[in-house]
Amino acid sequence: MTYAIIETGGKQMRVEPGRFYEIELLPVEEESDYTIDKVLLVHDENNITVGQPYVEGATVEGTVLRHWRAKKVLVYKMQPKKKTRKKRGHRQEMTRFLINSISVNGNVIATAPEQPENSAETENSAE
Question: Which end of the chain, N or C, is surrounded by fewer C-beta atoms within 10 Å?
Fold first, then answer.
């Protein structure tokens, strides 16, 4: 199993090709491709490459599926016996990001598995 650890939005996350992840907002349009070059670690079968801090020439390519705002987080501060109260809310802008491939030095080491779009139609047409 091939995976990479990337840094995006000030956070580190483990990503695999063919899966999607919710990350902080990326500055691109929906349905467009995006490349992340802040790769901290690449694990390919039995080989592990660790960067210092990033792996040279390693990239993770993916597609932005959609943008949205996450659920509201409420922050409530109160000092007892002082009649001091503060209530504040925050909604984080998020992006759903589908990982297409992991590359090192221009060589693609892992890609998303191809899935048949209409498998039921192909089975019926064979009969």
Answer: C
